[in-house]
Amino acid sequence: MQLNTISGRFAALTIIFVMLAEVLILVPALASFRLDYLESRLERGQIASLAVLASDKSLADELEAELLQSAGLLNVVLRRDDIRQLVLSSRIPSPVVQTYDLREDGLVQTIDDALGTLLNRRNEVIRVIGAPVNQAGQLIEITMETAPLRTSMIEFGIRLLLLSAAFSILTAILLNVAVQRLVLVPIRRVISHMVSYAEAPEDARHIITPDARLIELRDAETALQTLQKTVTSSLKQKERMAQLGQAVAKISHDLRNILTTAQIFADRLEDSGDPKVKRAAPKLVNSISRAVNLCETTLAFGKAEEPAPTLSRFNLAQLATEVVEAETLASGDGPRVEFLCDIPPSLTIRADRDQLYRVLANLARNARQAIEGTGQPGTVEIGAGETDSDWWIRVGDTGPGLPEKAREYLFKPFAGSARKGGTGLGLTIAADLVRGHGGRLDLVRSDAEGSEFMIHIPRDMAILPARQMAGGR
Description:
Strand 4 and strand 5 form a beta hairpin. A 5-stranded mixed β-sheet has the order 2-1-5-4-3. The longest helix has 55 residues, at 215-269. The chain is rod-shaped. By secondary structure, it is α+β, with helices and mostly antiparallel strands. The protein is built from 10 helices and 12 strands. It folds into 3 domains: 6-172, no CATH class; 215-297; 305-469, Histidine kinase-like ATPase, C-terminal domain (Heat Shock Protein 90, 2-Layer Sandwich). Helix 5 runs antiparallel to helix 6 (275-301) and helix 8 packs antiparallel against helix 10. The protein has helices spanning 6-54, 61-71, 107-119, 146-199, 215-269, 275-301, 316-331, 353-374, 404-408, 425-436, and strands at 75-80, 83-88, 96-101, 125-130, 139-145, 312-315, 337-342, 348-351, 378-386, 390-397, 440-447, 450-458. It catalyses: ATP + protein L-histidine = ADP + protein N-phospho-L-histidine. This is histidine kinase.
C-alpha cells in the first residue's frame, strides 16, 4: 500500500485520527484507573485494619508488616465514633507531601492529580482519605508511596495504547477494503472507460453506461456519458463535413473550369450587334464572375491550412494603392465609390505581402459591395500607423453597416455574410491570414454610419514558429 494512493492515504489518516481519539480518551482513562487504584488500596487497608480489630491481642511486628506489605501501604488510620485510631503502622521513609480526599475530588481535579502523578518521577509518600465500605467507620486514611501507583498507571497506559493501535490498524484495513469496493473500483472502471474511449472516440460502443450505486459516482458517470456522446457526435459530424468539403472542392474545381470557359464566350457577346444581346451580356458576365469567385473562395477555404507567411519588408502605402486600383476598376458603372488612403508614404511593414494583399482586398471588396448595395455613393478609407508593439491598419466605409446576424457570425464560413448570395468566406479567410501573422482582425464598429475593421500585426515576430520566419527578415 503506497501513501500516494487514495487507499494508502485513507488508511494512514484513519490510523492517525483513531490514535488521536484514543489519546484524548487516554487521559480520562488514566484518571479513572488512578482513582480505582486508590480506592482498592483503601479497601485493602480497611480489610487489614478489621483483621487487627477483630483480634483482642496485639499483632506481632512481623504479621503487621506482612499485612501492610500485602496491602501496599505504610500506615492505616481508622476513625470510628469520632475516635481516630492508628490501626497499622510502619516506618515512613519520608514526610507526607500530599493529601488526597477522594470524597471531595471532582472530575477535573481527578484528571489533574492523575497527570501530576504520571509526570512526577520521584517516589513520594502521600496520604489518601476515603469513606470505609459498608459503613465500617467514619473515614479511613492510608499512607502509601507513589512509585507503585505510577508504575501501574504507565503499564495501563501502554496496554491501552497497544490495544488502540490494534483497533486502529483493524479499522484502517476494514475501511480500506470498503473504500476499495465502494469507491476505488468504480473510479478505476471510469478510468478504464476513458482510456478505451480515447483510443477510439468515434466508436459508440465505448461510451460508458452509468451503473454506480453511489449517487456522486453515478453523477460523474452520467456527465462522462453526456460528454462522450457529444464528442462522438461532433466527430461524426466533422467527418461528414470533411467528406462533404472534399466533394464540394472537387465540384468547385470542375465548375470553375466550366465557368471560366463560359466567361470567355460571354465576354465576346458584348461585341454582338444585337442590342438585346449587348444589354444582357454585362449581366451574364457579372453572374458568371460571381460564380467563378464563389468557386475560387470555396477552394481556398477548403485547403487544409493556409501556407506559412513569407515575411519581408515592403511599403504599405504602395500595397494599399494596388488594392484601391483593383477595386476601382471592379466598381464599373455602379454607384460611385471613392477610395481614400491615409497611410504615411514611408511606412514600412514586415509581413507576407501577398497574404496581406488578400486581406485588404477582401475588406475593401466587402466595403465596396456594401456601398453599391445601397445605390448611393460612398467612401472606403484605408488608414495605417504603427506603435512600439505593432502595426495597425484600419479599413472603414460609409456603408449601411452590418446586420445583427452578420455581426454574430462574422468570422464563421457560410454564416457571416451580410450580402445576399455571399458566402462569408472572405472575412473568414482574412481573419485566418492575420492570425497566421500572430495578429488579429477586429470589428471596431458597425452602425448606420458605416463599418470599421482594424488589423493588428505584432512587430515582434518571435511569436511565430521558426518555419514561418524563413521567408525574410
